[in-house]
Hints:
Helices cover 68% and strands 1% of the residues. By secondary structure, the protein is mainly alpha-helical. It has 3 domains: 14-238, no CATH class; 320-349; 372-481, Four Helix Bundle (Hemerythrin (Met), subunit A), CATH 1.20.120. The chain has a two-stranded antiparallel sheet. β1 and β2 (376-377) form a beta hairpin.
Amino acid sequence: MPIDPRLRIRPRSPWEAIDLGVMLTRRWWRHIFPAWIVIAGATFALLHVATGGRMVAAAFLFWLLKPAFDRVLLPIYSQALFDQPPTFRETLRRLPRALRGGGLWLNLTLLRLNPARSFHLPVWQLEGLRGRQRAARIGVLGKQIRGYPIWLLIACQTMEQVLAFAPLTLLAFFAARALNKPVVDVLFGETAPLTMEIAGSLIYFLAVILIEPIYVAAGFMLYIDRRAKLEGWDIELAFRRLGERLQQGVRAAAALLLGAILLWTPPDPALAAPPTDAESRAAIEAVLNSPELNRHETRWIWRRRAGEAPPQPSSDQTEWLEHLGAWLATLFRGALWAIAALLTLLLIVYRRRWLRVSWRRPAPRSESETTEAAGLDIRPESLPDDIARAASALIDQGRPREALALLYRASLSRLQQRDRLPLRRGHTEGEILALADNRLPPARRHYLERLTRIWRQVAYGSEAVAPQTVLELCRSWPLFDGEAS
């Protein structure tokens, strides 16, 4: 069965497939809306009678039956896709078959809130799969686009609510002024007029009439796009069209050749003559008088007259806005206080990481500070003023071990003098690391750990140290020496 020649089946992005569904609804609206309006309108009227005239209950049941309405719309799209849109009578005649089977009751109950309903519907209704085969098929088709049917539902629900509540709110403003009541009482009050309930239900019915076909078409084109990508529909259709075009081209060429042989005559010199002035003038006037060059557009703009004061809203109309503004102000104020409290709590918990602030008091300086730690002299006077330059000079002299020892001695001296680390003569390298772990910020702690590890390997493992390794420690020394805990 040939695809509609105006529709090009090819791999598309999900959003482009959804937009294509909207365009197809505009193209096939003559085949969709007559039967759709009759079926939906008759159902809404029956629900109104069944609920005893309670419009809100009828509107709720109408919303609950949306999966059944989708099964009425989908066959119209599936047949129109193959260039055979059904007529009004055919849609009504096939209505029982569309509503029979295919998991309708399951979709009306357990799966009523399925956010990907429009995308899964072709698998349920058109492919007729059951059980595990259906679940596996939905899983394969839904890979890589699981979020797009959900966003489609959100977008359609938002448009539907806007179309429903915007006119209803406008009517409520007029009704509130006529009845001298607040707008909130007209919309949601216990004494709301019956006409507002009827108007709200009818407006909701019209919103569903407009949006539901778009929702079904967009989900159906998402399904078609996934099949085109997975099964190569576009390639198959391209080969079919190419074969048809070749056959038509051969027939047309043969017909043209035969006609040329039968109808060939010598060319008439008069046909090659240029047009006269009158003919040229007539052609120019025809172009100048064309509708494209003679289109006029009139726009009306409302402007307030000079000296006319704008109407002041009555207290009844502004009272509910004042309450709403006060409620929103209280809500935002509470949210700001909650955010401030949360930031304060995070600042207290992560103060050492963000601000490098500690509540612990530094240990008092002892009068008898040790001059040795880990067997090394750590007195400040025993160290040069510029540690990094002195260590680099030792490396240039071919003495990387002495340069490494100078860096380690200087680091222990800084820990004792600046960070007030209570070093003892008998402390080992591991004990010094454990003692400095909670007092240093991450950057200084990492430097000390690396320096200690290399020093152990050289001092106790008798391993040779590469000059480049010690040179890197010299370059990083300002990071350790210039950042206090």
